[in-house]
Amino acid sequence: MEKTQEQIAIEKQRTRLTKFFHEACAGYQLIEEGDHILIGLSGGKDSLLLTELLGKRAQIYKPRFRVTALHVRVKERDYHSDISYLENFCRQANVPLVVRDVSINDGMSATSSLNDGMMPNRREANPCFLCAWYRRKTLFNVAQELGCNKIALGHHKDDIVQTMLMNLVFAGSFATMPPMLQLEKMPLRIIRPLCLIPEADIIAYAQKRGYKKQSKLCPFEHESAREKAKDLLAQMKALNPDALSTLYNAMTNIKPEYLPKTKS
Q1: CATH number reported for the structural domain that contains residue 102 in this entry
Q2: Range 69-75 average pLDDT
């Protein structure tokens, strides 16, 4: 049966995304033989793509590894995804799905540092920080319950550059989320297999594939520092269409002789 133009376009986009995905996995050695990877599946376009790509990659003979997806619902946050949709999506991707509910008022302390590359010194009252912290805490707990040694998060190239800008502007440090991070206090590694994929490519593919959006979006999604960093990056792209790649490359091209000797 002859393919439609729409099918051809989807396959072309999928090939491009898969190329970036494989480059990241190979270049940063994100996947190894015997891994059991827990995917943080929020229900957004990025985590859906991550689930699709990892599920497909897990079916290739080498390296042999397993994947499981985890969707965390925070009771105090008035937004949610369609669980039946996520179940069907994961079934098609051959990825088992686990759903956990968590409450911010369940007694866990939000004062411990996650040491995961996020900006330091955030206030506990910040709703975005609290929500992210409890989701991440649940990811860590479930990963250890299931015997996973890695957690895959759906941060793409724009996220990594935006985090760098946030740290530069708000924390005075030249740092971002690394493609792979070994946690200090538990035998887990965080991996970001989408780190080389521009967000624009994910948006285009999600629209073609018909990814379903969350039923109700986060009430704070347009009020965060990340949204401001996203706007700043958009302004830089207007100045230079290649700004995303040049800023990403800048993080690996700093020469020691150009670094300040003392803090001002």
Answers
A1: 3.40.50.620
A2: 91
